Amino acid sequence: MDIPAPTPDQLLAAIAPITGSRAAAPRIHQGRVSLILDVTGLSAAGRDGMAEAATAALRAVPGVAEVRVAMTSERVDRRIIAVGSGKGGVGKSTLAANLAVALARAGRRVGLVDADIYGPSVPRLMAVEGTRPEAEDKTLIPVMTPAGIPVLSMGQLVRPGQALAWRGPMAASALGQLIDSAWGDVELLVVDLPPGTGDVQLSMISKWRPAGAVIVSTPQDLALIDATRAIDLFNQANVPVIGLVENMAGYLCPHCGKGSDPFGQGGAEAAAARLGIGFLGRIPLDIALRTASDAGQPPAAGDDALATLFAGLAGQVNDWLDRTPRPGV
Ligand SMILES: Nc1ncnc2c1ncn2[C@@H]1O[C@H](COP(=O)(O)OP(=O)(O)OP(=O)(O)O)[C@@H](O)[C@H]1O
């Protein structure tokens, strides 16, 4: 005796525990079921896992001989946060890496791009030094880090020193390769820009327009003059500045516990007020931050005072993202 064909509602009930609201009622014709799954926001593994489990559940329904699954996904509306500085060595990469980790802990789906062609340091900071990204149809697949953040770095694309002679358009196109990669469900890309305010940086940020920028500076006057130039750079490209972070602000001696301010104090906060931009906070000069960074263990992933500090910075960036409308929305 022929088994009566299951109804679409029966089929839907069979997969509901697996697919939730992601499946429309399946269609069935002569034992062949077609199912459309909305996989927006799922990782590649999550998508495949859901499709496989739904297929198995449908195959177990009497009267089903074959299952075809089509997956659809809305385009992920990805935003870029650029981390810039007027000059090198102020801790821009350290901040970018820890900000990415802290934003992920705050619930964002974050990826990290190291666009610093002059000295890419993100692979070391995130413990994936020497790991090359694979490519699928010329699209790079970001490298997953122990902190759970996917990263791509200029250092993975070019030999050391090779990019030094690049002009703006070349750097912008290389950055494009990093940004237009297989980021999956990543909604926020933190981009560590090269230090300085030259054509390379301008060409990069005008072509790959960030939603906002975070500027890093040390408290010294000189660094602040450089930071002001970095702010001008973003103004020229019409990129809103989210705020300024003061790094290496005050030193707590690990031996005597006494605090001192080798680079002065409060300069960045005053400068931010003068320039009419937000002040996001200060990070002390802390040997523990340097040793953890060198060991590829971003302190933002831990649970000490530095983690709390980075969580505070990320919270402010998070709030800014929440209250800043996306273009066209
Ligand atoms: N607050 C801090 N306390 C102690 N060390 C720090 C701090 N911030 C950064 N460093 C150390 O300073 C060095 C430079 O930092 P980082 O590479 O992040 O700077 P950068 O601005 O990205 O430099 P570059 O422009 O050369 O890429 C690193 O060794 C880093 O560990």
Helix/sheet category: alpha/beta
Q: How large is the share of residues in beta strands?
A: 15-25%
Overall pLDDT confidence: 88
E-strand count: 14
Largest sheet: 9 strands, mixed
Shape: elongated
Please state the CA-atom Rg, rounded to the nearest Å: 24 Å
Q: Look up the CATH topology of the largest domain.
A: Rossmann fold
Subunit structure: Homodimer.
Function: Binds and transfers iron-sulfur (Fe-S) clusters to target apoproteins. Can hydrolyze ATP.
GO molecular function: 4 iron, 4 sulfur cluster binding; ATP binding; ATP hydrolysis activity; ATP-dependent FeS chaperone activity; metal ion binding
Keywords: ATP-binding, Hydrolase, Iron, Iron-sulfur, Metal-binding, Nucleotide-binding
Model description:
The protein has 2 domains: 8-72, 2-Layer Sandwich (GMP Synthetase, Chain A, domain 3); 79-323, Rossmann fold, CATH 3.40.50.300. By secondary structure, it is an alpha/beta fold. The mean pLDDT is 88. It is elongated. The chain is built from 10 helices and 14 strands. The strands form 3 sheets. Strands 4, 5, 8, 9, 10, 11, 12, 13 and 14 form a 9-stranded mixed beta sheet that branches. Strands 1-2-3 form a 3-stranded mixed beta sheet, covered by helices on one side. 41% of the residues are buried. The chain has helices spanning 8-19, 44-59, 92-105, 122-125, 168-179, 199-207, 221-236, 267-275, 287-294, 305-323, and strands at residues 27-29, 32-38, 66-72, 79-84, 110-114, 134-136, 139-141, 143-144, 150-153, 188-192, 212-217, 241-252, 259-260, 279-285. 36% of the residues lie in helices and 22% in strands. Bound molecules: adenosine-5'-triphosphate.
